[in-house]
Design goal:
This protein has a four-stranded mixed β-sheet with strand order 2-1-4-7, with no helix packed on it. The chain has a three-stranded mixed β-sheet with strand order 3-9-8, with no helix packed on it. Strands 5-6 form a two-stranded antiparallel ribbon. The protein contains no helices and nine strands. By secondary structure, it is mainly beta. The chain has a single domain (2-81), classed as Sandwich (Immunoglobulin-like).
Length: 82
């Protein structure tokens, strides 16, 4: 998945198997900070092209995620783990 301008995750919905990992990669060329934040993870600020954060999902379920800075602009999504 990528953290992109104009303030959207691409894709913003994923379905994966339990124990798979998801890597969020910063792809916004502006340097505006973004985060990838969910119930049990937080990437911290990502601010440069190619910077990334990986999280391994060990439990099944549906997990919402968002950018701390741009949640109100719709920078949200879900990961479904089967």
């Amino acid at each position: 998945m990528t953290l992109t301008d104009p303030y959207r995750f691409a894709p913003n919905t994923l379905t994966i198997a339990r124990c798979d990992a998801v890597k969020a990669v910063y792809a916004d060329s502006t340097g505006v900070p973004h985060t990838w934040h969910g119930p049990t993870w937080n990437s911290g600020d990502l601010t440069s092209s190619g910077q990334s954060y990986t999280y391994r999902f060990t439990s099944a379920g549906t997990f919402g995620f968002y950018c701390d800075y741009h949640r109100s602009l719709g920078m949200t999504g879900t990961v479904t783990v089967r």
